[in-house]
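Lecture notes, part 5. Sequence design as translation. It can be helpful to think of inverse folding as translation between two languages: the language of shapes and the language of residues. The source text, in C-alpha cells, appears below.
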C-alpha cells in the first residue's frame, strides 16, 4: 500500500469515529463473550502521520492481526489474540507515543453525531423551500390576481406545509415536552408562531385572500434552525470525564496462586489477595508491596515528576505505573473501593454540580416566554373585542408572536460564542462548552498545575559539563539501557552532541536503584545517590548520579522544561489583577523553584487530587471564580470543581474531557488572551441583549397596533437576527 493510500485511509478513519466504534462493539460483545481486542488510549497523537506510525508498528509486531486508530477518540483498537496490553504498550512507546490501556467494557459505544446532522438537514430543507416560495411570492407581489394568485398560494402551501411540519420538528417536540410538564419554554411561542402563520395562510388561500404568509412561516423556521444549530455546536461537550477515568482502570490482574499466576477481572479481587505487577504495567488496585523492588511513576495521579523507589511495605494506588522491576502486591482495596474509583466518584459529583450552571439566554427565557404569550393573547382579545373580526384579531396575534419570536435572543449568545471560538481556534484554543466564555469572563483567580501544564513534563539535562569528555560514551551506554525518564533525558542530550556509546559488559538494571555495567574492568553505575554512596543533600532540582568506578560519583542535574509562553501567560494574568496559584503534587523544592522562576507568590507542593479539588472549592466559597489549568488524572476533580477549566491537548483524555476548553498547541500564552477575549465577548452578549430589547420595544407596539402583517413581522424578526450576528462578528 502506498503512503498516499495510507494517508487517505487514515483521514477517513479520523473523520468517522463510528467506523471504528461499530466493529469494536461487535468484537467486544460477541457471541462468545470473550474480549478479543485490546484498546489503548493515545493522548499525544494529533494527525494522519501519527495514525500511520502507530498502525504500522503494531501491524508489524508478531501476534498482531490488525490495528486501527481512531484519531477523534485518540485510541487504537488492536486485534491480537493471546496478547496483553502490557506487551503492546512498549511497542507504541518505542516510536515516541504515549499509550495507556483502556477497559473497553467501561466505554459506551460512540454513537454518530445524529443531532447535529439532523439540524443541518432541516436547515437545508427549509432554506431550499424558502427560496422557492420567495420566487412564487414575487409573482403575487408583482400583481397576480384571482385564479393566478390562488394557484401560486396553493403551490406555496404545498411546499411550505410539509417543510414546516418536517423542519419545525425540533421546536414542536420541545414545546410539547415543556407543556406536558407545565412549563413555558422558548420553543412554545416559536411553535405557536409557526402554526399560526401556516394556519392563517391556509385560511387565506381557501377564501381567495390577497395575502398568504407561507414564506413567513418557512423563513421563520429557517432562521430559528440556524440559531438552534449554533447553540448546539457551542454547547456540545465531549464524553464524560468520569467514564474516561473508569476506562483507565485496569480491567484485569494476575492473582498469585499455588498453581501459578491466574488472570482475573479486577472486580473479583478481594482484600488480602496477592497479585503480580509486571514492569510497565498499571497498578490495578490499592495495596502494599509484599515482594520485589522497582520504581513507581505517580505522575498521572499525584503530579510527581520523578519516579519513586518502591520496595516491600510501600503503599500503592490504583492507576500508578510500575516501571522497572516485577512486584507482588497485597490488595487492600479494589474495584469501587479503590482510590481511583473514589476519584472517579468525586469527578462525577463535581460534573453534576457544575451542570446546574445556566447561561444568560436560558435565564432570560424564563421571563421572556410568558411575556410573549401574554402580549399575543392581549392583542387578540383587544382586537376581537374592538372589531369583532376574528380573522383580523388572529392576524394581529400571529404578527405579535412572530415579531417577538426569540430568534435574536436565541442567537445572542451562540453568535458571540461562535465568533469568539473562531478567533481562539486560530490561536490554538478549542471551546467545548457554550457557557465557558461567559464563565471565563467572571474569572478572578487562576490556578495552575505544574507538571505537563506550566512545564512540559519531560526532564531535561541542565548541563553536560560535569561529565568528562572521555566518560560520555560510558554515560550514553548506561543511560540508553534504562527506561527511567532521567536516563532517557541524559541519553538524548548525549546523542545530540554526536557521542557514540561505549562497549560495556554485563549491563543490567537493578530495579529501584539504577543500571550498572563493566567498562575497562571497572564497574560503572548510573542511578540513585544512595546506591552509589553519594551524599545528595537538599536540592531544588532532580538529579541522577554517575559512577565511573573510581573517584567520587558525578551529580547530574535535571530540570523540567517550561512550557512555551508560560512566563508571558502568568505575567499577563498577574498584571490584570487576578490572583494566581500553583498547586502541584511534586516535591516542595521543585515547586518552589518553579514558582520563583514564574513570579507566583502562592504555591503548594505535595497536593493530592482530593486536596486540589478542596482548594478550588474553598476559593469558590470565598466568593472567587477560579480558572483551573491542568493535564493529569490528579487534576480531573479540580478541573470539574473550578468555575471554568482548561487542559492542554497533550493532557490525558480524562483531563481534556473534564475541561471546558482545550489548548491545542504547546504555547500557554492563549490562556491569558482567552481571559481578555472572554470579557469582550460578555460585553458583546450584553449588547446583543440590548439590541433584542430595543427591537422589541420598537417593533412590538407596531405589531399590536395592527400595522404589521405576519410577513412584515417575519422580515423584521430576520433583520433583528442579522443585526445580532453582525454585532457578534465584530469579535473576529
Amino acid at each position: 500500500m502506498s503512503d498516499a493510500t495510507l494517508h487517505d485511509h487514515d483521514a477517513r478513519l479520523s473523520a468517522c469515529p463510528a467506523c471504528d466504534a461499530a466493529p469494536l462493539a461487535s468484537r467486544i460483545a460477541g457471541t462468545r463473550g470473550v474480549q478479543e481486542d485490546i484498546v489503548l488510549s493515545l493522548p499525544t497523537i494529533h494527525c494522519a502521520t501519527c495514525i500511520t506510525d502507530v498502525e504500522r508498528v503494531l501491524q508489524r509486531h508478531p501476534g498482531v492481526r490488525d490495528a486501527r486508530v481512531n484519531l477523534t477518540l485518540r485510541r487504537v483498537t488492536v486485534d491480537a489474540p493471546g496478547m496483553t496490553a502490557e506487551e503492546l504498550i512498549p511497542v507504541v512507546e518505542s516510536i515516541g507515543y504515549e499509550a495507556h490501556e483502556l477497559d473497553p467494557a467501561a466505554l459506551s459505544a460512540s454513537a454518530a453525531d445524529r443531532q447535529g446532522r439532523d439540524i443541518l438537514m432541516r436547515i437545508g430543507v427549509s432554506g431550499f423551500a424558502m427560496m422557492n416560495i420567495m420566487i412564487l411570492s414575487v409573482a403575487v407581489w408583482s400583481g397576480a390576481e384571482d385564479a393566478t394568485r390562488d394557484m401560486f398560494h396553493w403551490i406555496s402551501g404545498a411546499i411550505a406545509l410539509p417543510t414546516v411540519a418536517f423542519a419545525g420538528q425540533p421546536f414542536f417536540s420541545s414545546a410539547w415536552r415543556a407543556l406536558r410538564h407545565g412549563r413555558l419554554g422558548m420553543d412554545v411561542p416559536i411553535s405557536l408562531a409557526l402554526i399560526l402563520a401556516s394556519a392563517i395562510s391556509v385560511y387565506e388561500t381557501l377564501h381567495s385572500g390577497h395575502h398568504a404568509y407561507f414564506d413567513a412561516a418557512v423563513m421563520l423556521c429557517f432562521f430559528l434552525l440556524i440559531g438552534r444549530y449554533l447553540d448546539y455546536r457551542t454547547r456540545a461537550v465531549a464524553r464524560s470525564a468520569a467514564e474516561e477515568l473508569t476506562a483507565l482502570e485496569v480491567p484485569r490482574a494476575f492473582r498469585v496462586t499455588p498453581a501459578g499466576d491466574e488472570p482475573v477481572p479486577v472486580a473479583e479481587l478481594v482484600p488480602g489477595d496477592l497479585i503480580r505487577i509486571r514492569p510497565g504495567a498499571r497498578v490495578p488496585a490499592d495495596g502494599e508491596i509484599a515482594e520485589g523492588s522497582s520504581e513507581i511513576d505517580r505522575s498521572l495521579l499525584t503530579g510527581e515528576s520523578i519516579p519513586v523507589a518502591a520496595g516491600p511495605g510501600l503503599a500503592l494506588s490504583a492507576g500508578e505505573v510500575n516501571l522497572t522491576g516485577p512486584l507482588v502486591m497485597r490488595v487492600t482495596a479494589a474495584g469501587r473501593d479503590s482510590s481511583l474509583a473514589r476519584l472517579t466518584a468525586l469527578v462525577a459529583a463535581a460534573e453534576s454540580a457544575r451542570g446546574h450552571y445556566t447561561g444568560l439566554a436560558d435565564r432570560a427565557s424564563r421571563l421572556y416566554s410568558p411575556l410573549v404569550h401574554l402580549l399575543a393573547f392581549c392583542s387578540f382579545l383587544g382586537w376581537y373585542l374592538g372589531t369583532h373580526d376574528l380573522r383580523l384579531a388572529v392576524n394581529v396575534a400571529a404578527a405579535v408572536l412572530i415579531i417577538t419570536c426569540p430568534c435574536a435572543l436565541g442567537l445572542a449568545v451562540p453568535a458571540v460564542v461562535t465568533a469568539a471560538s473562531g478567533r481562539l481556534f486560530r490561536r490554538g484554543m478549542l471551546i467545548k462548552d457554550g457557557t465557558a466564555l461567559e464563565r471565563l469572563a467572571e474569572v478572578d483567580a487562576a490556578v495552575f498545575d505544574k507538571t505537563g501544564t506550566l512545564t512540559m513534563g519531560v526532564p531535561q539535562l541542565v548541563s553536560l559539563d560535569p561529565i568528562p569528555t572521555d566518560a560520555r560514551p560510558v554515560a550514553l551506554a548506561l543511560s540508553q539501557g534504562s527506561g527511567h525518564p532521567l536516563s532517557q533525558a541524559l541519553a538524548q542530550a548525549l546523542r545530540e552532541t554526536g557521542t557514540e556509546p561505549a562497549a560495556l559488559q554485563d549491563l543490567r538494571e537493578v530495579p529501584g536503584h539504577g543500571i550498572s555495567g563493566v567498562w575497562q574492568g571497572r564497574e560503572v553505575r548510573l542511578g540513585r545517590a544512595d546506591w552509589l554512596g553519594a551524599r545528595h543533600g537538599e536540592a531544588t532540582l532532580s538529579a541522577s548520579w554517575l559512577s565511573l568506578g573510581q573517584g567520587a560519583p558525578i551529580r547530574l542535574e535535571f530540570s523540567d522544561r517550561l512550557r512555551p509562553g508560560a512566563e508571558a501567560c502568568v505575567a499577563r494574568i498577574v498584571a490584570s489583577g487576578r490572583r494566581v496559584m500553583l498547586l502541584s503534587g511534586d516535591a516542595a523544592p521543585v515547586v518552589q523553584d518553579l514558582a520563583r522562576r514564574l513570579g507566583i507568590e502562592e504555591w503548594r507542593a505535595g497536593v493530592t487530587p482530593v486536596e486540589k479539588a478542596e482548594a478550588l472549592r474553598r476559593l469558590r466559597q470565598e466568593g472567587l471564580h477560579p480558572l483551573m489549568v491542568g493535564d493529569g488524572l490528579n487534576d480531573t476533580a479540580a478541573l470539574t470543581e473550578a468555575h471554568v477549566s482548561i487542559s492542554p491537548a497533550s493532557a490525558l483524555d480524562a483531563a481534556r474531557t473534564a475541561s471546558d476548553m482545550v489548548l491545542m498547541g504547546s504555547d500557554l500564552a492563549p490562556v491569558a488572551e482567552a481571559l481578555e477575549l472572554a470579557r469582550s465577548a460578555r460585553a458583546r452578549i450584553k449588547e446583543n441583549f440590548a439590541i433584542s430589547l430595543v427591537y422589541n420595544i420598537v417593533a412590538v407596539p407596531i405589531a399590536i397596533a395592527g400595522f404589521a402583517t405576519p410577513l412584515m413581522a417575519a422580515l423584521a424578526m430576520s433583520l433583528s437576527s442579522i443585526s445580532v450576528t453582525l454585532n457578534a462578528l465584530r469579535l473576529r
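The translated text above is only one of many valid answers, since several sequences can fold into similar shapes. The chain has five domains: 3-106, 114-237+356-416, 250-337, 421-456+562-680, 458-559.
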